[in-house]
């Protein structure tokens, strides 16, 4: 979330700091109060029936064999059953059969795991309804706990090694983000709360915690906070208008349809808006932090720049950032919806009908609204940062670029050539013609 700008920024005047405190602190208080008001009560439990027992085990032997003929069907002749076929011996590590070796059929079918000797797998125990005392084991999937643990450890080590204390703060902010999502946003929506206010409140809470924890309590961070919050509100308004204009219901994915079957009181339309806001937050804070730091660094490098010059220079940086980030947003949504896109390419309907279908219109609205909020974040944050950075100057300093230095008179051409051909200190003298064969020759072409 933003680059590491560790260069010391110019000190902010006390009255500007007081103004930022008077602006940011009430927003934090309102966010905390809204969090307490919207905090979920007891989340209803979903009755999923009897859970199938799952136990860990290790594959010790795999025996494959030819598949038997498939049974005769009324639609056609019999063929060979889908493979692979055979048996897998697994050493059970948990449950009533821990320490024993059991045999299971080789996993087959779409999405079935491919197993080999030494693989750590998850077994499910299936009970025969006609004979409860008889049970059989089947391989459900591979164990992924240890590889994921090593990957997360590598991720954390790389962040800390490169970012040091700032990287450690970023990891703490990431943990805080997940904690807020899993303890407030997700349970609140599951309990039947309105998804849009819960998402806005949760996003604001994440923003305050993460930005101040990662980038410190400074005027520069406060400007990024205000820019992010304003862009989030605008994103929510645009999302509400866009989904209403396109008549999106929220049933644009298989996951949403499945969720409606388990929890009928969840507002899927509001859930769509909540997803847009939460998804936009990660990109928004990156842009706002970068713009705020850009204005601060420009003012520090050249104190003579006026407020308007700072805004224009930082906006040029923001345009380049937006040009690449917009592509990032669209590709991120396209990558997450790649199976859906492949499914739509096999659709025989006209392209106009496919583009306006609920499935694809939802992704178009999501990308467009997030991009509009991102574009608005650049001028908003840049303007606030320019005001804060130049607030300590006098009226003349804030509106002009400072005194123009008096130009020096251009040196005589003969004097310049003589100075260039003169020997350096400590070096043997070299005749001028050796360095400048033609003293009257113009050097413009060489330069």
From TrEMBL:
Residues 393-447 are annotated as: Disordered. Residues 393-403 have a biased composition (Low complexity). Residues 437-447 have a biased composition (Basic and acidic residues). It holds the Pfam family YibE_F. InterPro entries: YibE_F. Keywords: Membrane, Transmembrane, Transmembrane helix. The chain crosses the membrane at residues 19-39, 145-162, 169-190, 196-213, 225-248, 268-284, 322-344, 364-389. It comes from the Bacteria. This is YibE/F family protein. It comes from Micromonospora wenchangensis. The lineage of its organism: Bacteria, Bacillati, Actinomycetota, Actinomycetes, Micromonosporales.
